[in-house]
Specification:
By secondary structure, this protein is α/β, with parallel strands linked by helices. It has four helices and 17 strands. Keywords: Glycosidase, Hydrolase, Signal. InterPro entries: GH28_Enzymes, Glyco_hydro_28, Pectin_lyas_fold, Pectin_lyase_fold/virulence.
Length: 233
């Protein structure tokens, strides 16, 4: 890597650090207060829907079924989906309004290494095409559109996209669609993301689009930048 590229990368990381620090200082107190005052009268655990936290069993259906069930409580004060300790492999799934997704400190939601487990959705209207390729794009691991009152939180649980394979596909020009993010929320309001670690994203960690600014800063593992750096050549 040349000197100019190294300087650019250092500047990029510096700017991201400043942005994240400002984001935290401006919205962190508001988001923390909001999260602590939201009471969900209904709560279920992902294991109640057949999920297995062994890091091998695919739990996409369990997440989808749990959220479908909890949707019946949206007008009754909302609900919480709790993810206990374990390694919970899943493809992409969508959230609903008036929902708290809460992870135990030893819970890891793991993205499937198979692209077929990440649905393909329409490109963003402002792009008109996939950011990297014409046509659609893969849905993020955790997705939501036109939502309100959503909390994604935990006791510093982890969301791991297993992104290395996606970066390999990207640099080898073998992708059919634009890569997914870990979390993407569109046209949404009153969203809190806090007390989680995001790592190994196929693309961006958290990607809010056309949303009102009500987000908390979470922890980001630098591995996404490492993937980009080590696969530049």
């Amino acid at each position: 890597m040349g000197r100019s590229a190294s300087v650019f990368q250092a500047l990029l990381v510096f700017l991201i650090t400043i942005i994240e620090t400002q984001w935290s200082s401006v919205s962190g107190m508001y988001c923390a207060d909001m999260a602590s005052t939201v009471y969900r009268p209904h709560s279920v655990t992902i294991t109640e829907f057949g999920a297995v936290g062994d890091g091998v069993t695919l739990n996409t259906k369990a997440f989808q079924n749990a959220i479908f069930y909890l949707n019946s409580f949206a007008d009754k004060g909302g609900a919480q989906l709790f993810v206990p300790a374990g390694r919970w492999l899943t493809g992409g799934f969508s959230l609903i309004s008036h929902l708290t997704l809460s992870l135990d400190k030893d819970a890891v939601i793991i993205g499937s290494p198979h692209s077929s487990d990440w649905p393909v959705i329409d490109p963003l209207p402002s792009y008109g095409r996939g950011r990297e390729l014409p046509g659609g794009r893969h849905q993020s691991l955790i997705f939501g559109s036109h939502l309100t009152d959503v909390i994604i939180t935990g006791a510093n649980g982890t969301i791991d996209g297993q992104g290395a394979i996606w970066w390999d596909w990207f640099h080898n020009n073998t992708l059919n669609y634009t890569r997914p993010h870990l979390v993407e929320l569109m046209y949404s309001t009153n969203v809190v993301i806090s007390n989680l670690t995001f790592k190994n994203s196929p693309f961006w960690n958290i990607h809010p689009v056309y949303c009102k600014p009500s987000y908390c800063r979470a922890r980001y593992n630098p591995s996404t930048f490492e993937f980009a750096k080590h696969r530049r050549h």
